[in-house]
């Protein structure tokens, strides 16, 4: 059930909001928990049992992990933590990576005449996200940063909350623990505050990302022998825009939905394409994932303590994990290593900080955008061969045009929306001003915001009604 589907927009969401409004003041979590499990089961089917099993294990583990004073119990807590984190990682490894691992073993086996069986498991929706939520929960309790949740309904609400269950933001337990026990008092105010953010995200997803999708798909589906300079660049730039408006649109919708339910979820994007360095890009792109890896992997590994060599090693580990977190494929690993190498180079040569000179900032911003777009080619390509073929054509201009299939996909409407997307992401803006059209103070700016949201929401509704939408790109992770 996509946020951009008629079933969600016209039936599920109104029913949930009505239930939230009429439920007792202390009944918010029960409504959210039940609605979230129904939402997940509608798309996940039998793999919902896997989510429920993980919820049960981590709930009872959390009760055993609160800090105590005496030595034996401290050792017991450590082993409970190790066992619980290992359980969560094992679940993720089996369902997400076992198929990839057996595929590689099958290839090696075929070289020696063997026939190694390939394991095929359906990837549970959102497993990468709810696994990280579970790990955050038990680690934060073990560190004494927040107490365990003794009410199982509150725990289900945190883990399975439907706005962020499938594709984030990744909400660390410490960020939401204080919100879970609170009674819901300002229900209509929360709905009024969250709906514009939801509408803005829906517009970004349906109007821009989904409009660009057929053109991008046609470019990346072009056979290697038919690839040209024009197709390669059109596909790379188009995908950079599609992915940003799709994923940031989802995050806006999730944050808006969370607010309508009475929760304040963390921001996930801060105009990443305005970054002047790759280091800055990762402070602005998918921020909840970056914060999670920083708090639960990078800092425990030693962070930037212990000298440059150890820092570079830690950065490499983080981005290998970031790549494989996104998917079990060599393309994701190379994408992660590419960004890890860029961060190491920036740190090694003192380029991680943005220059103060305006012309230098403009040049560095253009270079950063170029490097990010190159990285997206690995991220989107079906395999490494196709990625290198496309990159080769991007680097070597030719006079060939578009194939008939790509030309048919490049309509005037899609070109207009591609240009609109480029204008929006390249507008000069300060990350501290908040999401686009969210922080407005003047009367003219408020009028612009209302006008854009009204037109965008109306057009989005028409597109949804005609079935002109596609699943969110991050659903596959």
UniProtKB/TrEMBL annotation:
Any Pfam family matching the protein: MBOAT
Transmembrane segment boundaries: 34-59, 79-98, 118-139, 315-342, 362-379, 391-410, 416-438, 450-474
Superkingdom to which the source organism belongs: Bacteria
Give an example GO molecular function: acyltransferase activity
Alphabetically, which GO biological process terms does the record hold?
alginic acid biosynthetic process
- Where is it mostly found? membrane
Concerning InterPro entries, the annotation shows: Ac/AlaTfrase_AlgI/DltB, AlgI, MB_O-acyltransferase, MBOAT_fam
In its UniProt entry, what is this protein called? Alginate O-acetyltransferase complex protein AlgI
């Amino acid at each position: 059930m996509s946020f951009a589907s008629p079933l969600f927009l016209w039936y599920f969401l109104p029913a949930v909001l009505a239930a939230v409004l009429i439920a007792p003041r202390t009944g918010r979590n029960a409504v959210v928990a039940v609605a979230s499990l129904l939402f997940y089961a509608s798309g996940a089917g039998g793999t919902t049992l896997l989510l429920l099993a993980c919820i049960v294990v981590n709930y009872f583990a959390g009760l055993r992990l609160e800090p105590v004073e005496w030595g034996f119990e401290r050792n017991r807590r450590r082993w409970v933590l190790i066992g619980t984190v290992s359980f969560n990682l094992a679940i993720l490894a089996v369902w997400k990576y076992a198929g990839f691992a057996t595929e590689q073993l099958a290839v090696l086996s075929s070289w020696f005449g063997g026939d190694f069986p390939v394991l095929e498991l359906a990837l549970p929706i959102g497993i990468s996200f709810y696994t990280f939520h579970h790990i955050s929960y038990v680690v934060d309790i073990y560190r004494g940063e927040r107490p365990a949740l003794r009410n199982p309904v509150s725990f289900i609400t945190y883990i399975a909350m439907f706005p962020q269950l499938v594709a984030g933001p990744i909400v660390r337990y410490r960020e939401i623990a204080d919100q879970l026990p609170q009674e819901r008092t300002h229900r209509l105010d929360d709905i009024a505050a969250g709906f514009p953010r939801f509408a803005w995200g829906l517009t970004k997803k349906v109007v821009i990302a989904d409009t660009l999708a057929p053109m991008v798909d046609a470019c990346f589906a072009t056979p290697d022998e038919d690839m040209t300079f024009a197709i390669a660049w059109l596909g790379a730039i188009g995908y950079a825009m599609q992915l940003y408006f799709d994923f940031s649109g989802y995050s806006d919708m999730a944050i808006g939905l969370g607010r309508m339910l009475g929760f304040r979820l963390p921001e996930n994007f801060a105009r990443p394409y305005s970054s002047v360095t790759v280091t800055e890009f990762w402070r602005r792109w998918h921020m909840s994932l970056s914060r999670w890896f920083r708090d639960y992997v990078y800092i425990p590994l030693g962070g930037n303590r212990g000298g440059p060599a150890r820092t570079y090693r830690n950065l490499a580990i983080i981005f290998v994990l970031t790549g494989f977190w996104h998917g079990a494929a060599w393309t994701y690993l190379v994408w992660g290593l590419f960004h890890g190498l860029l961060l190491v180079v920036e740190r090694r040569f003192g380029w991680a900080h943005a220059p103060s000179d305006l012309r230098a900032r403009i040049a560095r911003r253009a270079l950063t955008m170029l490097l990010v777009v190159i990285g997206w080619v690995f991220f989107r390509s079906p395999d490494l061969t196709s990625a290198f073929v496309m990159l080769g054509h991007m680097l070597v201009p030719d006079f060939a045009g578009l194939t008939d299939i790509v030309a048919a996909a490049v309509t005037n409407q899609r070109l207009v929306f591609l240009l609109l997307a480029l204008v929006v992401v390249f507008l000069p803006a300060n990350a501290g001003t908040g999401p686009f059209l969210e922080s407005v103070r003047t009367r003219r700016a408020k009028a612009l915001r209302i006008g854009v949201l009204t037109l965008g929401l109306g057009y989005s509704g028409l597109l949804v009604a005609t079935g002109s939408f596609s699943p969110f790109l991050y659903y596959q992770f």
